[in-house]
């Protein structure tokens, strides 16, 4: 008996986690990645406690690699400041010991990529998926823009918010839309940050809230740098222009043209304008942006959710399935949870195409168990940004209401019963 061969489309966080999880369980897989190497920005990312549990269960080496690449927060709290009216601390939520730490994406991904074997071409670069052919009784065929083909028993689309796997299988109607938020990001030397916002504010994770915008800062690069994210509300249509994601290598040249320009050239003056009436510390954060930062549109899957994460022998995971805004810091963590469950279920499938019943049951169990939690995150992220940006000023400014609203959402994300998820899905897969 042999386990199925899995083709993973996309070598971002979700695809890498899945490949490592499958490899650790003896399931053969290949990642097909469009880019020419493991490429992520140097911007920061924080991974929440649930993500750490999932990493441990995928393979303890994943968790160890993550811990070696991240930077401790100065304090084990997420702290929210009224950045608009008072510059006072509104609320602090305990993160658990060493919880929700951040690092530079490029460094975290590189440390994970090292866990895959060099041999066997487990990651194939320059392979942009353009076609899928899933006919019963034959392996699934993937075609790539360079004219080559590959076959597999299962295809997992981990190809992000503009997933080609998703549009090939479910159709173009299930596409991401503009959430009416865009962001600027930067990573600056801690010394520079201290001069602009003071030692304490530069030492640990803070969020600044107020009218129509918010900002998050946290240390990365072992404390040598501060990561800055500034999110601005933008009620109109996305007017991204200039550099498109094609040029960024973020989406393919023949992806959906209307929506793919999700990065444009911005100006620090846009942020200065948005924060013009705010407190000095937030203005200090904004002063740390470059003069012409990239403007990143935030697209999500709220308006056009896919009805299921699987069809035939193709399955979606991570942002391809349920891209959400970054406001609860959980998108990547949910992709890691997806990867854990898929790796577990696929390792249980005894044979390849010959035993399609158990394979389909496994894919359906994955979709059924992941759907509610991940769709909830898409909506919860929109609700959270409303709270952070004082869409309802009374609630935003009221520390008690704010703490109530934000605490239950974070705890729902962080305190997930990962073992329970695995048990439930395994049971479903057997039925
Ligand atoms: C500003 C911002 C801040 C964020 N902060 C956090 C945070 O602090 N914590 C958190 O948990 N999440 C955060 N997120 C969300 C997180 O970044 C995403 O959820 C996560 O990166 C998704 O990973 P993924 O692997 O599913 O998709 P992606 O990272 O998009 O990877 C997709 C991969 O597929 C490849 N690809 C695409 N199309 C094809 C194709 N046709 N053929 C082959 N390959 C293809 C791409 O090149 C890419 O490598 C943030 C997001 C943003 C925008």
Automatic annotation (TrEMBL):
Xref: Pfam families: FAD_binding_3
Keywords: FAD, Flavoprotein, Oxidoreductase
Ranges annotated as biased composition (Polar residues): 254-266
Residue ranges occupied by any FAD-binding domain in the UniProt entry: 5-379
Statement: the UniProt record of this protein carries the keyword Flavoprotein: yes
One GO MF term attached to the UniProt entry: oxidoreductase activity
GO terms for biological process, alphabetical: secondary metabolite biosynthetic process
Superkingdom as given in the UniProt entry: Eukaryota
Gene3D superfamilies reported for this sequence: FAD/NAD(P)-binding domain
Residue numbers spanned by region Disordered: 243-271
InterPro entries cross-referenced by the UniProt entry: FAD-bd, FAD/NAD-bd_sf, FAD_monoxygenase
Family statement: Belongs to the paxM FAD-dependent monooxygenase family.
PANTHER family associated with the record: FAD-BINDING DOMAIN-CONTAINING PROTEIN-RELATED, HYDROXYLASE, PUTATIVE (AFU_ORTHOLOGUE AFUA_3G01460)-RELATED
Protein name: Protein toxd
The organism of origin for this protein: Ophiostoma piceae (strain UAMH 11346)
Organism lineage string: Eukaryota, Fungi, Dikarya, Ascomycota, Pezizomycotina
């Amino acid at each position: 008996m042999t386990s199925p061969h899995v083709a993973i489309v996309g070598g971002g966080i979700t695809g890498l986690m899945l490949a490592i999880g499958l490899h650790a369980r003896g399931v053969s897989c290949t990642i097909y990645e469009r880019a020419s190497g493991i490429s992520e920005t140097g911007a920061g990312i924080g991974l929440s406690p649930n993500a750490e549990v999932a990493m441990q269960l995928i393979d303890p080496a994943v968790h160890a690699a993550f811990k070696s690449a991240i930077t401790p927060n100065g304090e084990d709290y997420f702290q929210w400041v009224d950045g608009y009216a008072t510059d006072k601390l509104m609320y602090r939520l305990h993160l658990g010991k060493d919880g929700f730490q951040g690092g530079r994406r490029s460094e975290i991904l590189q440390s994970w990529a090292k866990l895959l074997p060099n041999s066997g071409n487990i990651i194939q670069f320059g392979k942009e998926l353009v076609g899928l052919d899933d006919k019963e009784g034959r392996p699934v065929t993937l075609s790539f823009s360079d004219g080559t083909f590959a076959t597999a028993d299962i295809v997992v689309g981990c190809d992000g918010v503009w997933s080609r796997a998703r549009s090939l299988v479910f159709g173009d109607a299930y596409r991401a839309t503009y959430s009416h938020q865009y962001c600027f990001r930067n990573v600056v030397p801690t010394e520079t940050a201290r001069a602009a916002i003071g030692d304490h504010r530069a030492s640990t994770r803070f969020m600044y809230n107020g009218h129509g915008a918010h900002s998050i800062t946290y240390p990365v690069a072992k404390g040598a740098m501060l990561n800055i994210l500034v999110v601005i509300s933008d009620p109109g249509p996305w007017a991204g222009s200039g550099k498109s994601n094609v040029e960024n290598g973020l989406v393919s040249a023949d992806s959906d043209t209307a929506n793919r320009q999700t990065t444009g050239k911005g100006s620090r003056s846009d942020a200065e304008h948005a924060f013009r009436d705010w407190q000095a510390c937030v203005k200090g954060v904004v002063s740390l942006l470059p003069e012409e930062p990239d403007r990143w549109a935030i697209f999500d899957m709220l308006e056009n959710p896919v009805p299921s994460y699987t069809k035939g022998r193709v399955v979606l995971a991570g942002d391809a399935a349920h891209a959400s805004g970054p406001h609860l810091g959980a998108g990547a963590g949910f992709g890691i949870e997806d990867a854990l469950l898929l790796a577990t279920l696929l390792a249980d499938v005894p044979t390849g195409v010959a035993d399609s019943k158990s394979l389909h049951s496994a894919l359906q169990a994955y979709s059924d168990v992941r759907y509610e939690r991940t769709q909830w995150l898409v909506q919860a992220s929109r609700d959270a940004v409303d709270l952070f940006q004082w869409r309802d000023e009374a609630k935003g400014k009221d520390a008690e209401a704010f703490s109530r609203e934000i605490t239950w959402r974070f705890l729902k994300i962080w305190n997930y019963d990962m073992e329970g998820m695995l048990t439930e899905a395994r049971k479903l897969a057997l039925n």
